[in-house]
Amino acid sequence: MENKGLAIVAVGGNALIKDNQHKSVHDQFAAAVDTMKHIADMIAEGWNVVVTHGNGPQVGFILRRSELSAHELHEVPLDYCGADTQGSIGYMFQQALYNEFVRRNMPKSAVTVVTQTIVDRNDPAFQNPTKPIGSFMDEEQAKMRMEKDGWTVVEDAGRGWRRVVPSPIPLRIVEADAINALIEKGFVVIGVGGGGIPVIETPEGELVGVEAVIDKDFGAAILASMLKADLFLISTAVEKVAINFNKPNQQWLDQMTAAEARQYVQEGHFAKGSMLPKIQAILKYLDNGGKKALITDPAHIKDALNGKTGTWILP
Asked: Could you give the domains of the chain?
């Protein structure tokens, strides 16, 4: 089998939660099985793969359970929520891959690495928390949590109050060398879940977890750069990237250069909460010497890698 090189595959939220009616653990596992079949196709064609993933809804579930049981049990800090989800989602992915390898008689195995991501303690995001997490609260409860726990809270468009946390820029993946060693031993690695657990370095070089959220695609891009990956693939809800999205002059893109991508960003073609962070993460990877990137949905990964669909972004 031809060795195609190393691919970092960032799977989006639809890899686990297809829609609002299918959120249970069993539903999520069924979705994971579907997505991992497409990852197994890549591996069967000769790619070494590291799978990264989001964890936003799952962190929200843990926080909600924590709130509901606060009268009996201690609440769970945000960085521990990230670690919890890395373990549970990693378990789903690695079991789904294991079973797929058995069905295909492929001598492969997957392993999950609980992954920490270093951020700058002086990142401006810590002075301007913007990422909403957890449940809605009334004003009285919000002000109580602000005074008692030091939370930053905001009123959310008349729907109630929510906690907001920083979203700092990831700098370095602590376990990158361990992930690389596992790849060299032939393992499929699942890591950098949710962008990684955000940690800061003390002046003595020790690590301390912080209450923050890292963009999952930015975390994956840092890993792709550190491992000098041959391909950075972002699997999302659409088959291709479009400009003038949902307008009469919408245009699907087969390929674009980094310069063209930057121009489209400046022209406002990509939505802030949707395609924009994916394009920005890819540009970060390409700026650091990355070779090529691809955006498509899980079902079209195989066809996209063979040049039949998807959007390629090149330096």
From this structure: 5-121+171-314 (3.40.1160.10), 129-165 (no CATH)
- Residue 301 and residue 233 in contact, taking contact as beta carbons nearer than 8 Å: yes
**pLDDT tens track for 8-30:** 999 987 788 888 889 999 999 99
Indicate if 143 belongs to the active site: no
Residue 216 designated active-site: yes
Whether the CB-CB separation of 275 and 242 falls below 8 Å is answered with: no
C-beta neighbour count of 308 within 10 angstroms: 11
Sequence-ordered list of residues with C-beta below 8 angstroms from that of 65, at least 6 positions apart, any chain: none
For this structure, is 302 an active site residue? no
* 278 is annotated as an active-site residue: yes
- Of the residues 194, 195, 196, 216, which is catalytic? 216
Q: For strands 188-190 and 47-53, give the pairing.
A: parallel
Whether 209 is catalytic: no
Q: What average pLDDT is seen over the chain?
A: 94
Across the range 175-195, mean pLDDT stands at: 98
Q: Which residue has the tokens 């196709």?
A: 41
Catalytic-role residue among 4, 13, 23, 209: 13
pLDDT tens track for 89-134:
999 999 999 999 999 999 999 999 999 999 999 999 999 998 888 7
Q: How many Å apart are CA 287 and CA 283, to the nearest integer?
A: 6
pTM greater than the 0.70 cutoff: yes
**Residue 194 neighbours by CB under 8 Å, 6+ apart:** 53, 54, 55, 56, 59, 82, 85, 86, 213, 214, 216, 219
